[in-house]
Amino acid sequence: MADEQTLGLRERKKLHTRKALSDAALELVFERGLDNVRREDIAARVGVSVRTFNNYFASKYEALAYRQVERMRRSVALLRARPVDEPLWAAITKAILEPLEADGGTDATPSRTQLAEVRKLLASPEMQAEMSKGVFGPEGELVAVIAERTGTDPERDLYPRLVATAIGAAWQAASDVYLRADPPVPIVSLLRRALSEITAGLPDPSAGKR
């Protein structure tokens, strides 16, 4: 994925419009509830036509998923750029967390009302379908990058697929706890903990209690 600074003016304007539409979609979900947001509302919030919205996204769910899918792609690009001699899981942790931290995820704590809407959103089949288009699945771009770093074959070797699946599992576990936390907590802290546990080899937490 091209860095924004390397894009021409027209491409940067398109990228900014895409981000603005995605952000507006989430803002409206928090204000009105998922069921009460239409693509016309999102377009109006940004000050563009519905036709313009349709040029960028096929549905409100695609607009809502865009930011997270885009962060996933940034993580892949960052991992590819990490020093080749850096330990794999240290590189993965930095690459996964950096886009979230850059977008303010370190301190972003949702309200209980917002969290309820996020639960509804992530439970919807439409949103699940959009998120499945990301890069962390066993057939995604992440497998290829891990294979590059580890000198393995993305088609034949088990290892890069196991690592990619483990990263996806860390995201899923952190998200599950995030959605149930009371009081709410930032997703970044949970994801950092999940990746740290995997890096450590998932030690049995009950071992020290025996």
Report on the structure:
By secondary structure, this protein is mainly α. The protein folds into 2 domains: 6-57, Arc Repressor Mutant, subunit A (Orthogonal Bundle); 67-201, Tetracycline Repressor, domain 2 (Orthogonal Bundle), CATH 1.10.357.10. Helix content is 67%, strand content 0%. The chain contains 10 helices and no strands. The protein has helices at 9-32, 39-46, 50-56, 60-81, 88-102, 112-123, 125-131, 141-150, 159-180, 187-199. Helix 1 crosses helix 2, helix 4 packs parallel to helix 7 and helix 5 runs antiparallel to helix 10. The longest helix has 24 residues, at 9-32. It is globular, with a radius of gyration of 18 Å. 27% of the residues are buried.
- Derived from helix and strand composition plus strand pairing, the structural class reads mainly alpha
CATH topology of the largest domain: Tetracycline Repressor, domain 2
At the fourth level of CATH, the homologous superfamily of the largest domain is Tetracycline Repressor, domain 2
Classified by CATH, the class of the largest domain is: Mainly Alpha
Approximately how much beta-strand content do the residues carry? under 5%
Number of domains: 2
The shape, in one word, is globular
Q: What percent of residues adopt helix (DSSP H or I)?
A: 55-70%
Oligomeric composition of the shown chains:
single chain
Based on the structure given, which CATH architecture of the largest domain is correct?
Orthogonal Bundle
The overall pLDDT, averaged over residues, is 90
Low-confidence stretches: none
How would you characterize the largest beta sheet? none
Query: Could you state the order of secondary-structure elements as H and E?
Result: HHHHHHHHHH
